[in-house]
Fold Ferredoxin--NADP reductase.
Amino acid sequence: MSEAAAPGKDGVLRTDVVIIGAGPVGLFAAFEAGVVGLSCHIVDALEQVGGQCIELYPDKPIFDIPAIPVCTARQLIDRLTEQCKPFAPPIHLGHRVMQLERVESTQRWRVSTDGGLVFDTASVLLSAGNGAFVPQRVGLPEAQTLEGRHVHYAVRKRAMFADQRVVVAGGGDSALDWALALRGQAKHVTLVHRRNAFRAADATVQELKRAVADGQIDLVIGALATLNAPHDVLRSIEVKTLEASVTIEADHLIALYGLVADLGPIAQWGLDVRAGRVAVDTSYYETSLPGVFAVGDIAIYPNKQKLILSGFHEASLALRKAYAYAFPDKKRVHVHSSYDAGLSERILGTPAAQESAHS
Ligand SMILES: Cc1cc2nc3c(=O)[nH]c(=O)nc-3n(C[C@H](O)[C@H](O)[C@H](O)COP(=O)(O)OP(=O)(O)OC[C@H]3O[C@@H](n4cnc5c(N)ncnc54)[C@H](O)[C@@H]3O)c2cc1C
């Protein structure tokens, strides 16, 4: 490995590979980067690793991972995280990669995130699935200017809702959990949901019903219609119910409608994008840009299967070519992992078995 994890004096992080996306494929890629002898940084827009496995089906069993007859998606992500630990890849969560620029003078890539991180890297491995998971936003034009002050898509600082009139919108676990959590702290909590049925754990739904019956939370079944915000200060929210229009006095709207995947900035990077996915050459899963690889669900090629297994294979091959971009003057000799002294010491703390290396 060539470079350190800390930024240089210019604030730029130098590395061999930037892995965009910490889903199952990105995590395995971080391990493979270590095996191949490359330093890497992983970046994900979400606050936790795991991609679709954690966001969409954490407790669903998976049956088609080699040598693991059955595990839940969460267990798989835990194991992948454990597997890459010996290489301690820096993982930057809550950062969406926005820009990818070629630096012609160095033949390297500059990668920038919305959180201000800048990387200088020999290669980029896109394991970005269907794009970044972003919150589904309120479809009212006035919501955009109020975002961050009066309209929120996550609860980051709970204290900001103390003694405030809060409307929570949504019918899933997050919406119900936050409506319940804020009831003692906020001045008033109203939960607005389209239907009188919820997509949340039974116990949470029962607790909500009790809170509504006890008058701790108001429940309004209907759709958000207007945000009344004179001078850009939220005062009230109109909700269309089946029978009429209801006005709810409110200082804050917390909309928790779930996450949607959005390719977003990746579509602007000059890649060959087809139907929302990135076309690759299957020799090394390299895109139309030299040193930029696409693996996992984001990659498209004939007969591509959107499976975790396929992504593992693609990442493994891509990183072998990435080595040539990081070390153009070196030839990498293939050694089976059991006979790789460096790998054995990192993982087991002991030297490798004394067998001949395969090359
Ligand atoms: C319900 C369901 C069940 C499934 N069951 C199975 C199964 O049993 N077996 C199987 O093999 N497969 C299964 N799959 C498919 C499997 O989940 C995917 O193939 C796998 O998640 C792809 O992994 P990935 O790492 O490529 O992408 P993802 O898991 O989608 O992760 C991509 C990550 O990239 C991040 N990202 C994207 N753009 C950016 C950006 N610009 N900046 C920063 N971060 C970004 C995203 O936030 C996300 O975390 C299932 C899928 C679903 C929906």
